[in-house]
Design goal:
With about 325 residues, this protein is of the alpha/beta class. Helix content is about 45%, strand content about 10%. Strands 3-2-1-4-5-6-7 form a seven-stranded parallel β-sheet, with helices on both faces. Helix 7 links the parallel strand 4 (about 145) and strand 5. It binds NADP nicotinamide-adenine-dinucleotide phosphate (NAP). NADP nicotinamide-adenine-dinucleotide phosphate binds near residues 62, 86, 149, 151 and 199.
């Protein structure tokens, strides 16, 4: 058994048993998708569900963005990897680095697909346009956008939230999604072909005290997605959202707020997640979000638009219809 296989097995065990060895989770998640031989990957992705497609992913340096980039590549897509790859001061945890972005690029190439890493800030419309133009110039077209980049601030109730906490979360998590969509949509509408998935959250389906900025942005994404789906549907462009629950990423481990508490430990987050879920599982692997995104962007999802898919382990069974 290779080291990668051992790490993957360890990570699965941790996720199913919960609680124990939580420290191993983040380290193991950074190797997700590694270890595939280029030859095998070439054979597999030639017949993959995204063979011949070009996808843009924002927030691709790590976490859900990285897992989705690797999955898309494994299914035959070339991938444009956009990430700011530097800290944003109001996010109280270290954000991704240029090395993280380079690692995602390496993982996509290991799947025998083209990868184009672009350091850009989703808050800047001009940077999103330039990245899209570069993707079209160098990879020929854009078929898919996964608008995923996001940040969280810790315990910031509206009465005490700072201006940067309010503004940065709205600007990255909502305006950033709209900017990425606005950058690719003219090209997709002109080609009469394209599919967009935005990353909302279970925080976009319910109120969450302590993070009104995050909640406002994530609810906003759903309104945006449903409105734009109707605007561009007759042009054969589909627009959907996913709403993940607690996922094994730095945003969860370092950006989760529990009302009235200082920064929670991993064990506390794992316990809260398990209680929150209908299934007997705690924090979920990012690859499970990638699987839902893949379904939405693949031809199997061809009649799904304006749709919101919860990847929420049954916590979503509490939502109103
Ligand atoms: P993550 O590991 O922190 O990844 C987020 C990525 O977004 C980072 O690589 C980050 O790069 C990038 N990013 C942040 N601001 C950016 C900007 N202005 N421009 C370009 N890139 C930017 O967290 P994650 O959990 O994978 O989060 C991905 C998405 O899933 C977010 O929208 C998040 O809200 C959503 N989500 C996560 C969970 C969860 O439990 N983890 C649950 C529901 C929804 P830098 O780090 O360099 O800024």
């Amino acid at each position: 058994m290779s080291d990668t296989d051992k790490k993957e097995m360890t990570r699965r065990e941790v996720l199913t048993t919960g609680g124990a060895a939580l420290a191993g989770l983040a380290a193991a998640s950074t190797v997700a998708g590694q270890g595939t031989q280029a030859g095998e990957a070439g054979q597999r992705n030639a017949a993959g569900r995204l063979a011949g497609r070009v996808a843009i992913i924002t927030g691709a340096a790590r976490g859900i963005g990285r897992a989705t980039a690797v999955r898309f590549a494994r299914e035959g897509a070339d991938v444009v990897l956009i990430d700011i790859a530097r800290n944003i001061p109001s996010a109280p945890y270290p954000l991704a680095t240029p090395e993280d972005l380079a690692e995602t690029e390496r993982l996509v190439r290991a799947e025998n697909r083209r990868a184009l890493a672009v350091r850009a800030d989703v808050r800047e419309m001009s940077q999103m346009r330039q990245a899209t133009e570069r993707a079209i110039r160098e990879l020929g077209k854009v078929d898919i956008l996964f608008a995923n980049a996001g940040i969280a601030t810790m315990n910031s109730p509206l009465v005490s939230i700072t201006d940067p906490q309010w503004r940065d979360v709205l600007e990255v998590n909502l305006f950033g999604v709209a900017n990425a969509m606005r950058a690719v949509l003219p090209h997709m509408v002109e080609r009469k072909s394209g599919v967009i998935v935005a990353n909302s959250s279970v925080g976009g389906r319910m109120g969450t005290p302590g993070v009104p900025n995050y909640g406002a942005a994530k609810w906003g994404i759903i309104g945006l997605v449903k409105s734009v789906a109707l605007e561009v549907g007759k042009s054969n462009v589909r627009v959907n959202a996913v709403c993940p629950t607690f996922i094994d990423t730095e945003l969860t481990w370092q950006g989760t707020s529990l009302p009235g508490q200082p920064r929670p430990t991993r064990a506390e987050i794992e316990q809260v997640a398990r209680q929150f879920h209908g299934l007997d599982v705690g924090v979920l692997p990012p690859e499970d979000v990638a699987a839902a995104v893949l379904f939405l962007v693949s031809d199997e999802g061809r009649f799904l638009t304006g749709e919101v898919i919860d990847v929420a382990a049954g916590s979503n069974a509490r939502w109103q219809a």
